[in-house]
Amino acid sequence: MSGFPSRRQALPALIGAFRHMPAVSFQNVSKTYRSARGELQALRGVSFDIEAGEFFGLLGPNGAGKTTLISILAGLARASGGRVQVLGHDVQTDYAAARRALGVVPQELVFDPFFNVRETLRLQSGYFGIRHNDDWIDELLAGLGLADKADANMRQLSGGMKRRVLVAQALVHKPPVIVLDEPTAGVDVELRQTLWHFISQLNRQQGSTVLLTTHYLEEAEALCGRIAMLQRGQLVALEKTSELLAKASSNVLRFKTDDVLPAQLAAQARVTGRVVQLPAHNAHEVEQWLALAREAGVQADDVEIRKADLEDVFLEVMDRASRGSGVPA
Amino acid sequence: MNGWQALFYKEVLRFWKVGFQTVAAPVITAILYMMIFGHVLEDSEKVYGQVHYTAFLLPGLVMMSVLQNAFANSSSSLIQSKIMGNLVFLLLTPLSHRAWFVAYVGSSVVRGLAVGVGVMLATWWYAQPSLVAPLWIVLFAVLGAALLGSLGVIAGLWAEKFDQMAAFQNFIIMPMTFLSGVFYSIHSLPGFWQQVSHLNPFFYMIDGFRYGFFGVSDVSPWLSLSIVSLALLLVGALALHLLRTGYKIRH
Description:
The structure holds 2 protein chains of 2 kinds. By secondary structure, chain A is an alpha/beta fold. Chain A has 12 helices and 14 strands. By secondary structure, chain B is mostly helical. Chain B has one domain. The longest helix of chain B is centred in the first third of the chain and has 32 residues, at about 55-85. Chain B starts with a helix and ends in a 6-residue tail after the last helix. The mean pLDDT of chain B is about 90. Classes of the chains: A alpha/beta, B mainly alpha. The interface of A and B includes residues 96, 104, 106 and 119 of A.
């Protein structure tokens, strides 16, 4: 790779040098948006660190402040209070070094219609002061299944292909910290698999730090070693994924039905089409739920009891945070 | 390649890829102006007592094209990128506000000069003015294009929709250009309007530029140079300030 040290040499060395400090550090970050209609407090004193080499998930419902937090990290927005650092570089006072260390895949599907894929990636390399980057660009194109689209204009690409180019653009300067803001929203299974294979490889083999926000909780459960949850601008959970799952207070009773649930069941159930899921701490509770269903004439098919997954934990945490613990409604 | 060079290259490539719209079209417009106004007013009184009207008109048309296209380059690039959302690719980079300024204004100067040279070549056969002081021509063309490129940066950052940009262009840039002496010498105006014209910085850009062709102008080229340089400093400083603070592009 002419004029640029190979990824295998450069990245581990860089990561080693910064091993003693967090890859990303949020310190008491707050953000208030002011408009003619009043003030909106999007973040309220959020603090946590992401260690180098972590695959970290940031979860929360819409409007929880995930994208605001990432925008502050990326320099797209300024915090109203607090401090954010990337590998020790303050994102405001030392923004150039911080942004060199960051590769951000934005949530919106945006592109520049004037250029083809290769031109887009060469220009993006140039903005980071990198010339002769074609070897790495070819590697990115191959890894993301874009090799045969290198000369296609951005306008000619499908949504999924454009999303791949967004990922390639974020990685073109070989950032040690990769930020993916809902990268798989509305994309097909093939792209998801390609993307996660590629990003996981960077995380495992090159030690890249990954910060992921997603609404697909099964993705977060499968990929992320540690998870933070935000609700209404506050941090409501921050733990290893395995510990979060272990802390789940219940198992889940799952069955299918075409009948209408009685009020007592409906209040506790998570219903997706025909599928009904109810929290069940023990066999007694399972019997109670089934008895209530039977009394109401509900025909329960395919009954099973499963372990709680991240979605159950997420809902439990969000519910707990809404009901108390100082999170304003 | 430094970051600003990449952005400068991208901005030049951007307008070059649509060269029919960004270079050829303004040249054709200027040829039409020259043919119509030149034909209608050819027999009018000589300007400065010695210059044929068509020869007088040519530098004005060239400079008008330089200024309008320099403004259009930076302003349209910024507003398009803002509205399409692809400005985020630049916002995520370590490029400084100075790099943005140099790249956007530099590429505007290149487009302004490209159109200016095109207009001059296309209309030269029609008027054939003299070239008394070519350095003044180059100096005013570059300074004027840089000033309008900077103004384009301000307009591109300020405007949130194409409608606002069109208002900026049609209610500020266009009248100031047309009323700056492109088509006439301000000495042909009544006294009051001569005084008003002296308040228009565009007048000094065109008058100084014209001095390079004929060695004669409505005011001293040194005065024009001072005013244009001062305007560039002020407008450039404002554009740099807006870029540094992320006006309307960073929340």
